[in-house]
Amino acid sequence: MSSNALYTDLSSYYDLMCADIDYQAQSHSVRRLHQLFGNDGRRHLDLACGTGPHVRHFLDFGYLSAGLDINQPMLDLAQQRCPEARFSCQDMASFQVDEPQDLITCFLYSLHYNAGLAPLAACLGRVHDALADNGVFCFNSVDKHQIDNRSFVRHSADHLGSHFTFGSGWYYSGEGDRQALRLSIEKTTAGVTESWQDEHSMVALGFADLQALLEPRFEVQVFEHDYERITPWAGKSGNALFVCVKR
After folding, report:
1. Beta strand 86-89 with 64-69: parallel, antiparallel or unpaired?
2. In Å, how far from its chain's centre is CA 208?
């Protein structure tokens, strides 16, 4: 099964797949970073918004929040969650906005869903063009040189009489600009188990390469991947938060 098919077929289970994610903490942390580094504006766009949990929090914070994703079933669920928000089905490498945004976010390492280094560079250009003066782009990233192919995270959840077990882990071959997000899903209902295995191909790069792409357009601050406190990145961990202010 292709990654797009799995993503679409299981769109109604997406929130279960992400049940271990603290969306409120992530949203609150990025709001604080925007307050520290950005302007006072409230126009917010979430790239690769999925079913809209981050958008929901930013709406509740008082932002004029919107989202985009390439998957329409996800956007249909996002619209139900956030009826007052505006959602659009667009590719983040070529998206357009009607007015400048004060904050653009891309959570859950979704910036890596760009199909290669050229689309990633195009995405960063679109973000820059879409931001207002002193607007902020905030996202998280993984350094390909720090990926541990042995690491695989799992969690379980019950839903409508079925038991689900979800697993995910990064894989990088050690060379090139492609990495993978490997997923496993098991659904057990009345003693019968169905399984899915999938691999999402994603763009891979090191943090030095990423900063080189960002710095012509943005003032870049890098922080440890910690949504509970704001700590400058020490240069060792392979996960980080990037806060980029439009030049």
Report:
1. parallel
2. 20
